[in-house]
Write a structure and sequence with these properties.
Layout lengths: L11 E2 L4 E2 L1 H18 L1 H6 L10 H27 L6 H25 L5 H24 L3 H21 L10 H6 L2 H4 L2 H5 L2 H12 L16 H16 L7 H9 L1 H5 L2 H27 L4 H48 L4 H6 L2 H17 L1 H22 L7 H40 L2 H6 L3 H52 L7 H42 L8 E2 L24 E12 L3 E12 L3 E6 L5 H9 L6 E6 L5 E3 L10 H6 L6 H10 L3 H6 L17 H15 L3 E5 L7 H12 L4 H4 L3 E5 L11 E5 L5 E4 L12 H7 L4 H12 L28 H6 L5 H32 L6 H43 L3 H5 L3 H41 L7 H44 L1 H7 L2 H50 L6 H44 L22 E11 L5 E12 L4 E5 L6 H8 L5 E7 L2 E2 L5 H6 L2 E3 L10 H5 L9 H10 L3 H6 L14 H19 L3 E5 L7 H14 L4 E5 L11 E6 L2 E8 L6 E3 L2
Parallel strand pairs: 3-7, 6-10, 6-11, 8-9, 9-10, 15-20, 15-21, 18-19, 19-20
Antiparallel strand pairs: 1-2, 4-5, 4-7, 11-12, 13-14, 13-16, 16-17, 21-22, 22-23
Helix pairs in contact: 1-4, 1-5, 3-4, 3-6, 5-6, 10-37, 10-39, 11-12, 11-15, 14-15, 14-18, 14-22, 14-40, 15-17, 15-39, 17-22, 18-22, 19-21, 19-22, 19-36, 21-22, 21-34, 22-40, 33-34, 33-36, 34-36, 34-40, 36-37, 36-40, 37-39, 37-40, 39-40, 44-46
Length: about 1400
Amino acid sequence: MFDEVDDQFGPANTGRFDFTILFEQAMLGLVPTGIVILAMPVFLKATRSARQARPGALLWLKLAVGGALVAIQLASLVLWQSAARTPVSLAASVMSFVASICVFSVIYITHIYTVQSSALLSVFLTITMLFDITMARSYFMRGGLDAIAASQVVIASLKLMLVVLEEIPKGSLLYSKKIRENAGVEQVNGFWNRSMLIWVTRLVVQGARRKLRVEDLPPIGEEYSSEQLFDRFTPYWVSATSGNKSKRPLVRAGSRALYWEFLIPIIPRICLVGFSFARPFLMQRVMDIISSGSGSRSQTNGLIGATILIFGGLAISKAISERLQYQAKTCVRGILVVAIYDKIQRLGMEDLAASAAVSLMTADIAGLDQLLTRLHATWASCIELGLGIFMLYKFVGAACFLIFIPTIIASIATYYTSKKMQGARTGWNEKIQSRVASTSNILAQLKSIKAMGLTTAIARFLQDRRLSEIESSMSERNARVCIFAIYAFGNTMAPVAVFAGARFWTRAANPMTVPETFATYAIVLIVALPISELLGYLPYYAGGWACLTRIQKFLLLPEILDKRDTGSTSSSHSIEYGGKSTISVHLRPYAIDMNHVSFTSDLSGPILRDVTLRIPTSSIVMVHGGLGVGKSAFLSAVLGELPIDTGTIAIATQHIAYAAQTPWIQNLTIQDNIIGAFPFIESLYDDVIDACDLATDMEELPDGDQTMTGSNGCNLSGGQKQRLGLARALFSRCSIMVFDDVLSSLDETTANKIVQRLLGPNGLLRRWNTTVIMTTKNLDILNNADMIFEVSAQGNIVQMPLPRKDAKDSSSPSQNRDETPEPVAEIEAEEESQVDIKGPPAVDTTKTPAEATDDTNRKESDFRLYRYFFNSTSTFLLIIWFLGVAVASALERMPQIFMRVWLSIDANNNTYFAGFVAFSVSDILAICVVGVQFFKYIVPQTSAALHRGLLQSVLEAKLSFLSHTDTGSLLNRFSQDVALISQTLPTLFMATVSMLFNVLVDIGVISSGAKYAAPIIIFFIVALYTVQHYYLKTSRQLRILELETSSPLVTHMTESSSGMAHIRSFGWQYYFQSEFIQRLDSSQKPYYYLFCIQQWLTFVLDTMTFVSAVTLVSISLIFPHSTSDGAIGLALLNLISFSATASLFLSVWVRVETSLGGLSRIKEFCAETPVEQDREDMPDLEESWPASGKIDFNCVSADYRGPAGEVRRALNKTTLSIQHGQKVSVIGRTGSGKTSMMLALLHLIEFSGSISVDNREIKTVPRHILRSRITTLTQEGVELKGTVRFNMFPFDAPTPADDHIIAALEGVGLWAHIEKHGGLDADIVNARLSHGHKQLLFIARAILHQEIMDTKIVLVDEATSSLDAEMDEHIQAIMDESFADCTVLNISHRRGTSDKIDLSIGLSTGEVVEVLRRSSRSGVWVPAE
């Protein structure tokens, strides 16, 4: 029968340890059943979608159990008709019956129409199962309700069966094969499997046992597809940025696109708050029973059950909440990284050069990630703070408000410190951005830098940048130490303030008991946690907001505006991306129509003036003019890359083939560079290879057209790179092709051959009826043009008359084309096969070529890495620091330990309070000391030393290694890896060491809570060892996989930025973005799974806390004489924070270990990179060496070794002698070995035989001295980020006076241009130098270097290829005069006509085929003796 109070709401039944029946039926029955009934319309809506899965035996089994549940609920409803009941008994039974029917329906709907099982159904079944057990217990205790109680047990059993069945994956029953393959393991598993991360265990075990690859990681699901996420984001971004609707459009658009992902973690987070605040009451109740020495069996069982519920609920709600937050962070990363890449496709080339897209994609996304991690914890901390103050008031009255005194002080201090920290972090990031940009610029020119002997100067330059960056970081690090101190102040002084108020004010007359004291302490800790978290979050918010602002600022940059008019009629060669591609055979009469086009630069003034011209379709147009007059600007206007001020440009098609003067080469095979985004057509490919005269070059390469070009084409010669860029343009078959002086690096024979094969009477482009616009300085090829334009120095473009032709060539090129027309049907057939752009290739997104090494030890924790990290730090200083951290960590727990001693000796003696205060203050001081010692003395030393070692390894690496190493991989080490070891690793390492001692102290305190609880120590040690054994290895592997998959993203971003003009002209934006998204999706897998196993660790440690709490409470209640109220209070008090401390310790330790992945990559790179090593027993070298400049090659042979080990002969038994002061011309076609001879002389490549300079074998001369005493003008030149002054003399010597530099610039005719753009202090980018201007600057630098360093050997490699004939002749005269007393080796494609040339050496396939000297009598070339 019911008790008297069972008809009341209760909730507690005062007569027994139980709830009232009315409360149970209302709250445990009506509320959950009402929720599931109200949710039915949502499930019914799902039936409108397509079926996803077959029924199978699984569904029928679920329905059978569901049907049994409906039947039992109906039976229970009948039994209640005749039983004693409360006012809500019948209503609760009816609702339960209706809910069981809903459950039956939901089982069918979610199985057939959804891929993922229903979270609501699993939660409902699990919670109501526990409620049913509770109600069954109450019914059995009342008597007379045994039948109903038995039905409740059966209902609970059936719900348990349904929960288990819902956990069985149905992946094999899915209809779609694509969904089966792309559905993540998490997606097809049940709710509790997902929530408790059971599915992650398999991945953790795999990672501990074997090496993981990206391919081994299961898919993460279509919901994380970067393309789909970006498509969701785009309309909201467009809406937020249109009309200046919001000052924070990125926040607005992101929150609208991911509103569900941001909102769903709220529910489990609220549950976490509830379970958290239940712990102090549980503690007080347990201590009351222990202090009284008696407790009923029902009380004991109830408290043990409450411990299971509270600590179990804590673990599960935290796991669910954090997992959902990680999913939101993964989605944010997918959106923003794609948004950054999408933005670079819309920026002008100047903005692209100035932007830091790579830094945004790495450092700023990581900073934003820190903000998002704390997003939900912020509002939850506010709720916890309010609840905590309310509960604290119950114990100490008005003294609860004293907790705000240290909080207010800490808040004010934190506000000013965080404000300073934000500014300091912004300045630090700017320094990082500057260093990374300079490093990227240098890595792209490393071959030329080494050849010019700049390695020592560049090493000092970049190391100075690094030291400046470290100096800038000290403000941020000082602020961080202050934050640590403020955090400790708020943490330790809060209990001091509250207990002082309670003992001397509100509870002075009624002292608190021991249970009340520890319960109050527990509440203070719970309240202090959100306070300290809110304070601790401020620097992360400051840094994260700064990162968010930088990303938003980048996304809001003005985009390039294409002012060209393409009209509605497409040419027959146009390519369309939307829908099916169509071909139109109706051509416009004019391919280009310009009317009154003008463009004025802010720095350079007018570039183009009132340009009006028409270029007929299918005509060959050549443009020439002086140096820097605007030829390239004219082509940029045609391509839509120039923001013209006035006038109109009409073009026949938007897609134009483009080949730049500086070729854009990706680190792919030669074939992949040529075909680009188009499908491979063998016949077309063969025609293009023949037209560009590449067949011979490919035959000489060991892998032919499958040879990797290297970063920026470093494995190819300058002429080969230009022809490769030309071949790409030809393969596109666009109806308009734009060539910017693409023959400048070719020898005369090869250039003429290509001109005839392309532009001759039967040339390829004439047969294709292609409109060609090309700039050239070679006036000899103008007779192949249909139209000629000259660009004047004032920016006007004037059509010039065609040169007269011989009678045999009197027919016009257009007439010749008409004589050999290509059938229209054939054109259409070939074009139809060509217009469809192929999808992105199946790229290997796991590793770059340089990283494709077997890292078999990466899953192991290598303590040698710690020694490597602190190698530059004093051992004594480290020992002192470790001891200091140990003391600080012990002091952090001493106030609690001291309180137990105090209360056990004399609880009412307030004198002991002074000791409590002293330990609290000591903790703050100790944290400040160790923080300053670590961040101001240890970290700067290690950061500088590691960067110096990495820089030295790169700059001293062998040229063969650099040729086969991707620049993006090298840059990733200087950006992401260095950021890890200088920003992330130090903070994490300090936190790890501190929390290690905290965990050890906590384990000891918890184990001392009861006499029989000592085995808990063994449990903790075994569990922690087992967890770290599996977790550390897997986590470190995933972190390394994340770094490895990030490297291709950096490479793709860098290559796309440098070649964006080509990408836009060909119309390849979609293709390159799809490839980027493919690489990003691959990198998302280790990124997300790293989060998953971190959460797995947290859940496992929470489970350990759960086991420890249940064990401790059970032993204490069952054997109350085995402990004291103070001991159990202190143990339970430490259990409150132990889970968080242990979890944070292992998480941070693993983050340290995984961050060591960046350190490991640097260490391995420095250890394994083949570097140039000079002999140790070299004889002394005279300061004046070389005094004459005599050069002797004796049987010199050299090979190039490819990435796969293949060998190609570069020089073959070369023997020659060059006397002092001789001017030597080294000639030969592209790839003949000219540059190899220069590299051998500079000892940049290994060779057999001997090379002597002034009778001194160069292998006995240190390389850096050898190169610094030779003046070298490389083909590519070196342009460094910095001022004009720095670029004029970046060598390891005192900078000459400005007058000296200006004289060198005036000598080549460049000073007027430099002075107009800011003089020597102007940034080199703002000097607006054309290709020709840059070559003049390089020549002036060489003249200055020779004069200052008094060198006797000058190497010149195609130094005037971008100059017109008149300027070339003028500069050659200047060089002849400046280098009159030097031995000069001039590498060129044609024999020099200057009478200053004494010797001509002809090379072919690495062999000397002729040596000619100029006859002193006749002046003609004769064989040398």
